[in-house]
Amino acid sequence: MDTATTTSPAAAGLRDFATALDACHDRAASGGLVVSRGGWAVASPARVTAGAQVPGSSGALMAERGGTPAGDRRQEAFADELIGLHRQTLREVLDGAVARLDRRVSEGANLLNRQLVQGAVADVALALSEADDLRELPMSTPWRRWRIHRDLVNAGRTALKLYGAGGFVAGGPGTVLYLTEVLGNTYLRPEQPGPEAGDD
């Protein structure tokens, strides 16, 4: 085990994310493990003991294929949990980026006061608000969840640019956002295109 990585803030962030993911499994499957329709299960090494490390997770997440896919109700419950985790992660990245920009000055001006920066912050905040609105609509569908996932992915990439180079270092906020993308692509992709899939 790499002591340097397990004790660093980045490693702690990845462990916290893995713990949050395991909690999503618990709420959807009460102590079990939700297997995607494609037969994949992704969780911390405490839950998935075989398989392979998820790339970019530094061993915080493991993926195994071959299990029996969960039923529709459990798939839907877990999908809602994953979207909530993605949203929470993006909110934290945005808050961190705004705090970081508020401490930085260029050419005598606070970076957060620049029009382009404010526009990008607003774009991410709007995506978060739209995701909340779509989640609250009745009769959620796989295609609506997929649309929310894609919108959050796009907003996450904008939030990372606000972070600057620090957002892309190993173990930084880009790493955790990348893992939310991997999870969404594993569990949320609809089997067939639908009316809420947008421009798919």
Explain the overall architecture.
This protein is mainly α and 200 residues long. The chain has one domain: Butyryl-CoA Dehydrogenase, subunit A, domain 3. Helix content is 58%, strand content 7%. It contains six helices and five strands, in the order H-H-E-E-E-H-E-E-H-H-H. The strands form two sheets. It has a three-stranded antiparallel beta sheet with strand order 1-3-2. The chain has a two-stranded antiparallel sheet with strand order 4-5. Strand 4 and strand 5 (109-110) form a beta hairpin. The longest helix has 31 residues, at 72-102. The N and C termini lie far apart (42 Å). The relative contact order is 0.15. The model is unreliable at 1-6 (pLDDT under 50).
Short synopsis of the structure:
This is Acyl-CoA dehydrogenase. With 200 residues, this protein is mainly alpha-helical. It is built from 6 helices and 5 strands, in the order H-H-E-E-E-H-E-E-H-H-H.
